[in-house]
Specification:
The chain has 300 residues and is of the alpha/beta class. The protein contains 6 helices and 5 strands. Helix content is 62%, strand content 13%. It has a single domain (24-251), classed as Pyruvate Kinase, Chain: A, domain 1 (3-Layer(aba) Sandwich), CATH 3.40.1380.10.
């Protein structure tokens, strides 16, 4: 089918409309990345404060050593939270974190009980033979993260009521750059002995003597552990949401580049067809003029 200037102009207009939508989505994704980055950054100081408090309590309390790897956990329960996305245009976001989580959980001893954040990652886990026991909606803002974390903590308490030594693992895509991310995992419970030792070695920010814990140190430790779990879950969720928008931003950048190339080709074709039409019209005018001139010439 031969293209006309009218059909090419229609295609150019449609491509420009699509490019306008793509650029709006790029701006929105970049803005979303910013808000989640700020939330993670804002938590950093508080997280460090909680770590200092935990280190202080661990210095004062003799804790039972954590079980050695592979011992005493053969039949234990393993709770796992997998953070995914329910939004479109995120590429392989859900596939990457699902494959990573399944591989990691298969290497762990014990029975895994998985909570999925997002219907799409829920479906992917089902396809991989790891049916989740719970499904949560993906937060659509920073404010919506807190209610989600509260739900997960309640489910974790239920799990630990069945097995006080139950593990809790997080699986999420961690934000690296504006358009890249990587799948990571974090074991929150039970506390790793090396991690506890590292906390006790943290230097206090002032040169004064170490502060004393007022009241019941066990209650203080429990409160700090609760805060540690909350902040860790919040940070993982915010990182996942930032990564989701990074994936979308990368997709929109590719689409914008492809549309630019398409517009270059369409504009080139449009001007070629237009010039061809002009040439034909000029040829017809010249031919008509010559024919008219011949018809008016006197016969010799």
């Amino acid at each position: 089918m031969t293209e006309t200037t009218e059909s090419l102009r229609t295609k150019i207009d449609r491509a420009k409309d699509l490019q306008s939508v793509v650029r709006t989505m790029k701006a929105l994704a970049a803005s979303n990345i910013g808000q989640y980055e700020k939330s993670v950054s804002a938590l950093s100081d508080y997280y460090h404060t909680v770590e200092l408090g935990l280190g202080l309590c661990f210095r004062k309390i003799a804790l039972t050593p954590a079980p050695e790897e592979g011992k005493g956990q053969k039949n234990g329960l393993i709770g796992a939270v997998v953070f995914g996305s329910d939004q479109g245009l995120v590429g392989q976001f859900n596939d990457i974190i699902t494959d990573y989580a399944v591989k990691e959980l298969e290497a762990l001893p014990g029975k895994a009980q998985v909570w999925a954040v997002g219907e799409r990652v829920y479906s992917r886990l089902l396809d991989e033979g790891l049916p989740p026991i719970g499904l949560y909606n993906v937060p659509n803002s920073v404010k919506a993260i807190t209610p989600l974390i509260a739900q997960i903590l309640v489910e974790n308490e239920k799990l630990r009521s069945q097995d006080e030594d139950a593990e809790l693992h997080l699986y999420y895509n961690r934000h690296k750059t504006r358009v890249t991310y990587e799948p990571v995992s974090q074991r929150l419970l039970p506390f790793d002995e090396t991690w506890r030792d590292d906390l006790t070695k943290l230097s206090w920010p002032t040169k004064n003597l170490l502060p004393e814990v007022m009241g019941d140190i066990t209650e203080t430790l429990r409160a700090l552990i609760s805060e540690y779990l909350f902040v860790s879950l919040f940070r993982a969720c915010a990182e996942s949401l930032a990564s989701e928008n990074s994936s979308r931003l990368a997709a929109m950048q590719r689409a914008d580049k492809n549309i630019d190339e398409l517009l270059d080709n369409l504009n080139g074709e449009y001007y070629r067809v237009r010039q061809s039409g002009i040439d034909e019209e000029l040829f017809e005018v010249v031919s008509g003029f010559e024919a008219l001139s011949r018809s008016r010439s006197p016969h010799r």
